[in-house]
Write a structure and sequence with these properties.
Length: 548
């Protein structure tokens, strides 16, 4: 007889949370404290927003851009746009005007929903985004007057005020587009990835699994990852589905405010990039006992490799498990998770801290439903022995097959996405990242992993952050240079850094120079901006010593 052919639509998931946990809180940080509303109120307001958008002419398949911090209105916009069958177009608030202009025009977004405090960032687009008909502006308490020349504008609350009752979510094809995210455009124009209802539905279910984030309705989650960055790694959808309390930091992500917010709201799980967790560690170390993080049980870190020393500090100082994930815009984005990885001999259950902390430093095992492979230059699979290094490929039901309105196929090989990452896979099927292919250092025909050097340098006491990049060399083609940020009051020397590295790395793998800097530039998603670092070194006419 078969099963019912019920389409996998996100509206079925986000409505569930309001049904089973209507009083669960959505907490938004504000300039004066926090603003709270229930999950029931959030869903009710999303229906009102959908009705207002429909009255403004938005229909199935239309793109609606969202230019907001993490907050309850942002969550309402997600549900309204996706539920009514329009396409949620996430705009990164940290992108330069030229990229924003390209992305809005390439997507053809009809409306923009924006927070008032970042509305000025859109002003350079005035007269340059002809498809945008209206801007809906969310205004937080205490924010003054606002205006914009980009398009006709209306206050968010005034926009939804005339409307009440439920919007009839349409029964869409599960392959209908749901969201649109653009890559950061490290080379050429940003590339768009369009997600389907089916892909996000499956991604949401998978990320809640015990061996992934292990989410439940008892969790209070804090997504430090911006919702505009690959849909907040999917955490808002998962929390909506389960009825979790959500703690949203808005623009208030300075480490002291963030730690205080997590402590006061009893956060149990938080997500962010390693630079965030390095800053949080510094706050907790500087002010021991000032913040009660006793409910915090796990931190999910992604975007770049997690230093084992950082995971160790959280485990030993706070009893918090750090979980590493790996993925990218093209994988929706979560692809692998590293926790206490399963071992074929069954010893994972008895793994000592030394062993499972080593596991966390890996990118981890693929989520069920995905396949990960490493291949050589001929796309032939390589052994899963933890030593053989090759290009990382991935395929599965939430991996994109092509870029939005760009027929170029160089990033794909058959059904496989060519990720641009390089790594190995060990006997436990754990992915171990070596580097982004563009960030490897090729010296004398041999490859040096900048990630491995960075993680080892960061483990040295007194070092807060390290960034390793390649610089041209007249004999060896390239040599590594390390930029190091020290903890306040630290007096680490270049010789100490090199001596520390010599414990693990061969002499030819050591950085030729260690440059101490006040800070390392970050990308729009909080990762170290190696492209800018390399450009700054060139602009300073930096030259490596000639070792011929």
């Amino acid at each position: 007889m078969g099963m019912q052919r019920t389409p996998l639509l996100m509206s079925r998931l986000f409505e569930r949370g309001a049904a089973v946990a209507p009083e669960a809180e959505i907490v938004t940080a504000t300039g004066s404290g926090t603003r709270r509303q229930s999950l029931r109120q959030t869903i009710e307001r999303s229906h009102r927003l959908a009705r207002a958008l429909g009255d403004a002419g938005v229909g199935i398949g239309d793109r609606v851009a969202v230019f907001m911090w993490n907050g309850s209105r942002h969550l309402e916009a997600w549900c309204a746009i996706v539920g009514m069958g329009a396409v949620l177009h996430n705009l990164n608030v940290r992108l330069p005007p030229a990229d924003l202009e390209y992305i809005v025009n390439h997507a053809g977004s009809r409306l923009i929903i924006a927070d008032a405090d970042i509305l000025p960032l859109l002003e350079p687009l005035a007269g340059r985004v002809p498809t945008v008909e209206k801007i809906v502006v969310g205004v937080e308490e205490g924010y003054g007057n606002w205006s914009t020349a980009v398009a006709e504008a209306i206050d968010y609350e005034a926009f939804i005020e005339p409307w009440s009752g439920r919007f009839a979510w349409p029964r869409l094809d599960e392959h209908a587009p749901l969201g649109l995210c653009y890559t950061s455009g490290t080379t050429g124009n940003p590339k768009g990835v369009e997600y389907e209802h089916r892909s996000q539905y499956l991604h949401t279910m998978a990320m809640c699994m015990t061996d992934a984030m292990s989410l439940s309705a008892t969790d209070a989650v804090c997504g430090v990852v911006p919702m505009f960055h690959v849909m907040g790694w999917g955490l808002p959808w998962a929390a909506m589905m389960l009825g979790c309390k959500q703690v949203m930091p808005h623009r208030f992500t300075d480490p002291v405010r963030l730690v205080r917010l997590m402590a006061e709201e009893g956060v149990t799980l938080a997500t962010g990039v390693p630079t965030v967790w390095q800053q949080v560690r510094a706050v907790c170390s500087d002010e021991p006992g000032s913040f009660d993080l006793s409910r915090l049980s796990r931190i999910v870190s992604g975007g770049s490799a997690v230093p084992e020393s950082l995971a160790r500090w959280y485990w030993e100082a706070l009893g918090v498990e750090m979980i590493q994930e790996w993925g990218m815009t093209e994988t929706s984005p979560l692809a692998t998770f590293s926790r206490r990885a399963r071992r074929p001999d069954g010893t994972h259950a008895q793994a000592a801290p030394e062993e499972f902390l080593e596991d966390v430093s890996k990118a981890g095992q693929a989520l069920p439903g995905l396949e990960v492979e490493i291949v050589d230059e001929n796309f032939d699979p390589m052994p899963h022995d933890g030593r053989s290094t090759g290009d990382i490929l991935v395929c599965g039901p939430w991996v994109c097959a092509e870029y939005y309105r760009q027929p170029l196929r160089e990033s794909f090989h058959g059904d496989w996405l060519v990720t641009g990452d390089v790594g190995s896979i060990d006997g436990n099927e754990c992915l171990i990242l070596s580097d982004r292919s563009k960030d490897l250092v090729k010296s004398g025909g041999e490859w040096i992993s900048s990630v491995n050097l960075e993680n080892h340098i960061t483990a040295l006491a007194g070092v807060a952050q390290a960034c390793v990049v390649a610089q041209p060399h007249p004999r060896w083609e390239q040599r590594p240079v390390a930029l190091v940020v020290l903890d306040e009051g630290s007096a680490v020397s270049e010789d100490q850094v090199l001596l520390h590295c010599s414990d693990r790395f061969a002499k030819w793998q050591l950085p030729d120079e260690v440059l101490f800097v006040d800070s390392i530039p970050l990308t729009s998603t909080g990762k170290m901006d190696k492209k800018t670092v390399r450009a700054n070194l060139r602009a300073a006419d930096y030259r490596l010593p000639d070792l011929r």
